[in-house]
């Protein structure tokens, strides 16, 4: 039985949250690759059987934590929005939450997290890029992936914290991206 087919009562939701919080706490001091189920269970104060009742593996748990973080982020629905903060890609929006910052800073997980973001955002962002630039689907997807990887790298450089330098860098990059959109649309 998979996680999706189980009944989700209050106790189940509470236990799952305890397990997810334990993972996030462990990520504050070690990488995901260093975490073992036994250690996670100790941190969450649960048994291994309880862990496996709720999750098939640590990767299953990681997927749920990332998906939770992505669901917490507000969607940007208009690429022409002038407020630079609203234009911030989803990686910054959930990396901005201190609860998830250590997850975002785990270099071993960067590509994995980006892949999950692409999966969630591609269906919405690619058509917007197509509309804004006149590119075909494949080209717009390439541009989306390029922008997302670049944004992730810049935000990692700033430790996913919005300070004055992050603001200046983000504004400069947004002007660059906007100029590119304008050039492509001509």
What attributes does this structure have?
single chain; 186 residues; mainly alpha; 9 helices
Please explain how this structure is put together:
With 186 residues, the chain is mostly helical. The chain contains nine helices and no strands. Helix 1 packs across helix 2 and helix 7 crosses helix 8. The longest helix has 24 residues. The protein is elongated. It starts with 9 loop residues before the first helix and ends with a helix.
Layout: helices, strands, pairs:
Layout: H1 10-27, H2 37-44, H3 48-54, H4 58-72, H5 90-95, H6 98-105, H7 110-133, H8 137-157, H9 164-185
Helix pairs in contact: 1-2, 1-4, 4-7, 7-8
Characterize the overall form.
elongated
Terminal Cα span: 53 Å
Give the radius of gyration: 19 Å
Pick out the low-confidence regions.
75-88
Number of DSSP strands?
0
Arithmetic mean of pLDDT = 84
Oligomer: single chain
* Element order: H for helix, E for strand: HHHHHHHHH
Helix content: 55-70%
> Helical stretch count?
9
Question: DSSP strand (E) fraction?
Answer: under 5%
- Largest sheet geometry: none
Counting helices, strands and paired strands, the structural category is mainly alpha
